[in-house]
Here is the input.
Amino acid sequence: MTVPRPERLDDLLVDGFRQVSGILDERKSTLAADPVLAELADRVAEAPDPESDEVKRALLYAVDSRELSGAAEAVQYFAHRFRWTWLREEVERRHLDSLTRVDHRLIRHYERMLEAFSPEWEDRDLFPSLDN
Here is the structure.
C-alpha cells in the first residue's frame, strides 16, 4: 500500500494517519496498518529535519485528535521508533492534565502512548517493522 505524497510533510502524515485509522477500523489489525506507518516514519527519517515544525504539528494533531480512531497507534509507532523528548513531554503534559481532571478514558489513552517510549515496550510486536 502506497501512501499518497502531498507536498507538505504535515499533510502527508495526517493523510497517512487517516489511512491507518481506516485500516484499523476495517481490518482491526495493527499488522495491516504497519506498512503504512513504516512508510510514513521512513519519510520523516529521510526529511532534512525529522523534528521539524511540520512533523511536530502532525504528531500533536494525532495526540489530540478525536477524529482519528488510530491516533494512539500512530503516536505509539512514532514514539517507539524515534523516542523524541519533545513528543514524550507533550504526551506527559496531556496525561497529567487528564489525571487532574480524572478523565479515565484519556488517562489510559495517554498511558498507552507513554508506554511506547520504553525500549521494552511489550506491544512493539504488533508492529513488525519496528524490529528492523
Notes: The two ends are 19 Å apart (CA to CA). Residues 9-27 form the longest helix (19 residues).
